[in-house]
């Protein structure tokens, strides 16, 4: 994944945690839409692996 793509995704995550969803989409959407197939796959994997970056929540273990 290009470093500019990663920066955009990280910034979108930060904005989402601040309840600035519209701004987050404005930053992330162009990057996602212009990604080629390989980078698109990397973006998908990154999003799945970093879902808590967007929510700010941590997973709690249940007994």
Annotation keywords:
about 60 residues; mainly alpha; 4 helices; about 75% helix; about 0% strand
Quick overview of this protein structure:
The chain has helices at 3-17, 21-34, 37-49, 51-55. It has 63 residues and is mainly alpha-helical.
Report the radius of gyration as a whole number of Å.
13 Å
Number of strands: 0
How far apart are the termini?
37 Å
SSE ordering: HHHH
Major sheet:
none
Uncertain stretches of 5 or more adjacent residues = none
How many helices does DSSP assign?
4
Helicity range: over 70%
Summed over residues and divided by their number, the pLDDT gives a mean of 89
Please identify the structural class as seen in this structure: mainly alpha
Structural domains: how many:
1
Describe this structure as you would to a colleague.
- The protein is 75% helix and 0% strand.
- The chain contains four helices and no strands.
- The protein has helices at 3-17, 21-34, 37-49, 51-55.
- The longest helix has 15 residues, at 3-17.
- The chain starts with a helix and ends in an 8-residue tail after the last helix.
Architecture blueprint of SSEs:
Blueprint: H1 3-17, H2 21-34, H3 37-49, H4 51-55
């Amino acid at each position: 994944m290009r470093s500019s793509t990663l920066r955009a995704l990280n910034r979108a995550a930060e904005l989402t945690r601040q309840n600035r969803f519209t701004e987050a989409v404005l930053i992330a959407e162009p990057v996602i839409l212009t990604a080629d197939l390989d980078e698109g796959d990397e973006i998908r994997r990154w999003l799945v692996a970093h879902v808590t970056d967007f929510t700010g929540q941590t997973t709690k273990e249940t007994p």
